[in-house]
Design brief:
The structure is a homodimer. Chain A is α+β, with helices and mostly antiparallel strands and about 450 residues long. In chain A, about 40% of the residues lie in helices and about 20% in strands. The first copy, chain A, has 3 domains: about 220 residues, BirA Bifunctional Protein, domain 2; about 100 residues, no CATH class; about 90 residues, Anticodon-binding domain (Rossmann fold). The first copy, chain A, is built from 19 helices and 16 strands. The first copy, chain A, has an 8-stranded mixed beta sheet. A 5-stranded mixed beta sheet of chain A has the order 13-12-14-15-16, sandwiched between helices. A 3-stranded antiparallel beta sheet of chain A has the order 2-4-3. In chain A, helix 11 runs antiparallel to helix 12.
């Protein structure tokens, strides 16, 4: 075996101990909140059959699926003469049957359909697992990243929308993020908008265009729609509606007035009012919630509320999103199951929290006490104390080698260990231990019970 | 989109809420122990470059690697004329650069080499992640399964061996598994054995054969070795040594006497004695530890102690293994780094614990209280109490729809929720809540503080 300089695939990352401590802080905050709200854990395989995955994420999504080469002699059943003329896209289905999951939503829908006779509706599940996309890597965009999803299926109660909003508040409170906005819109309001500008048959073009309003501005949105064949009249009405979106944002009542002629639009407004009323029962403060008529999230399967969470005044804004869907499982043969889902993006939350330096320092301490020894006579005493500390629930370790004290203290420093116990012959004789506080540098001789209480008191 | 009956790839599994609760009990027991012993978390990407993975697991292992098809038009750079004549094994390197990790050991070695300037030695890391093998699926063997590894690199102190042994004891205590054996051997003792039968150049054949002793018996081991060209003299000495392995097992002292002429063998015996002495300092009871001269685990990279853990009197025995290695990182250009690693197999532990019915029932309760409501007037009261319970750290949920009480109670039963709170108009008037204990069926009207204390007392 020749020696090589190893590397990892582009768009993927190693997470060392320091990053893991921070990531686990985020994971635990989300997991604890989901559990507090009655969601149960689910995990699905990393690989799915390609017929489950393809056709669910649009043409662009299909191209971003990581496909797994069939095992064994995968060419053996292929006509060799065809191979010289084939193209990648024709060969792929012949040599690959499985792909890595692209998100957690489609595997969840697949699970619900396969296990429909075992699960109790309404089914509340959370799922925290990595997903893979063969996207061009760039800052904040990775080829392997985690999603943290919570979904409730089997009910169309708007209590679920309010619970999702409450969950977002609780997660952000736990993370210490204060300045954020939950943008909310409703698919039926968007459809109503399409109706009143006589563009019901071109909803998709309309939603894709106005979704960009924040980024490209109203004029460019309108000219994009013009180029797609929207009439001058339609655009004039649309301009009038969207123009109202000032600093304060468009109010639901203003939109309601404009949508009075659309039954669909009115139903959407009614839902929105009910969601806001319920949110008011859940929360004392609704100032984070913002109605955003332009929010569409480009996902065609949303049929009700559409949600997006942004952290304000940071580079990477959007850290999560979701919405209500009425027919997620229909494609797998189980129609008419309404549900709502939300997903936090851990990798983006990590970047945001790093930028705002919100990670608590106590998270980085994992080992509390390092035991040291100087010779074989003190080693057994050190090991006995070590095991006693561990039995008391204190994370502790012993430096395994007989090396100079300086090296052992250096190890404790680098590993953020707050206490070092020194056991020399004198300590051994007097049944006392040298306890060194690594942040103050102070060392004192203490008996075992004093040692335990000092270490336990340190948070 | 046509509707299809969905399935999952063979050898993979969905883990629903009930299984997840049990799996998390195992994961948490292992993770907490690793943390208690000063190991820090690490996660590496699911995909590795194929040049990192191949050549590390033997020819058979290479064939079990899941390979990922290159993205985009992967055939575009391949000479089409060659394609009609190529075979799978020649095509694969042209269309696949990445594979899914096969274990956690090689990615860990790769990590250590890539980050050698950032990590502090001795480096203690744990890693709990899935691995993938394109093996033929069968009972207890999956294509996606979890490993839980702990490794210490950068020290050859035998304290590490004792710590691994102590960790195994602590994990099994937490899991409630009492009847298990930690088999231990030493690579140098095996090498000494090869030396005294003049077969130093055929160590591998020897180790592979005697590793099967338990399964196929001494006669078949000897005839396998005979067919591989081991001399009659060698086999006669070997038979004499292995024959001593009676019910009580072979003692280290007996082997020591036989290995007196081999320097390597003597060094192995010395290590073993020291490991046992240290284990005696860590543990009160060494009865789980068994010296097993035939244990080789087929892994050529072990250079010191070799460990295997078996649960006794169950179908699937081996639930973990590990050992010391002196040159794991050498293949990536960093020679001479000694370390020791151990890995628990969660999927096998799960099967063992299921067979022994060791999962504690309290693990299956996730939501403690279900709130119900009968109309819109009681809904707000229910939501307020719901949020108060959650703020007190109690997992609680509300049934989102206005349905018959029977259906709500059924939901609570199926989800193992121990308490249901009923809020009717009368309760509303008297500021009391109907608290139903789901296991006794008893319901009583209580005020809020009584409700909280009853729920909190329930473990």
């Amino acid at each position: 075996m020749s020696s090589l300089k190893p590397s990892i695939p582009k768009g993927t990352r190693d997470f060392g101990p320091e990053q893991m401590a921070k990531r686990n802080f985020i994971f635990n905050s989300i997991r604890n909140t989901y559990t507090r709200y009655g969601f149960l854990p689910l995990e699905t395989p990393s690989m799915e059959n390609l017929d489950v995955l393809t056709g669910k994420y649009g043409e662009e999504g299909d191209q971003l699926l990581f496909k797994i080469l069939n095992s064994g002699d995968y060419l053996s059943k292929i006509d060799r003469n065809l191979l010289s003329e084939t193209f990648s896209q024709n060969l792929t289905p012949l040599i690959s049957e499985k792909g890595l999951r692209y998100d957690l939503t489609v595997p969840f829908a697949r699970f619900v359909v396969m296990h429909q006779n075992e699960i109790t509706l309404p089914f509340k599940r959370y799922q925290i697992q990595p997903v893979w996309r063969a996207d061009r890597p760039q800052k904040g965009r990775y080829r392997e990243f985690y999603q943290c999803d919570a979904d409730i299926v089997g009910t169309d109660s708007l209590i679920c929308e309010a619970e999702i909003i409450a969950i977002i508040h609780e997660v952000f409170k736990k993370l210490g993020i204060e300045d954020y906005t939950i943008n909310i819109n409703h698919r039926k309001i968007l459809s109503g908008l399409a109706e009143i500008i006589d563009s019901k048959d071109r909803e998709n073009d309309l939603f894709v265009a106005i979704d960009k309003l924040d980024k490209i501005g109203l004029d460019k949105v309108l000219s994009e729609l013009e180029s797609k064949g929207f009439s001058t009249e339609s655009l004039s009405v649309l301009k009038d509606v969207l123009n109202k979106k000032g600093n304060e944002g468009l109010k639901i009542e203003q939109v309601a007035a404009r949508l009075a002629d659309s039954e669909t639009g009115k139903a959407g407004v009614e839902d929105m009012n009910e969601i806001m009323a319920l949110a008011g029962t859940y929360l004392d403060d609704l100032s984070h919630i913002n109605f955003d008529l332009t929010l569409a999230r480009g996902l065609t399967y949303y049929t009700g509320a559409i949600l997006e969470v942004k952290v304000n005044n940071v580079k990477i804004g959007s850290v999560g999103g979701g919405g209500r869907y009425d027919n997620l499982t229909g494609v797998f043969g189980l129609p008419g199951l309404s549900g709502i889902g939300f997903s936090f993006g851990v990798d983006r939350l990590y970047d945001v929290m790093d930028e705002l330096t919100l990670f608590p320092e106590s998270q980085q301490v994992t080992t509390k006490v390092l035991l040291t020894y100087f010779d074989h006579s003190t080693r057994a005493t050190a090991i006995k104390l070590l095991q006693e500390l561990r039995q008391q629930g204190i994370n502790a370790e012993i430096y395994p080698d007989l090396v100079k004290m300086k090296k052992q203290l250096n190890y404790a420093n680098k590993k953020n260990i707050p206490f070092v116990v020194v056991i020399g012959e004198e300590e051994l004789k007097n049944q006392r231990y040298g306890l060194k506080n690594m942040s103050t540098g102070e060392q004192k001789a203490v008996d075992k019970s004093t040692l335990l209480s000092i270490v336990n008191e340190h948070n």
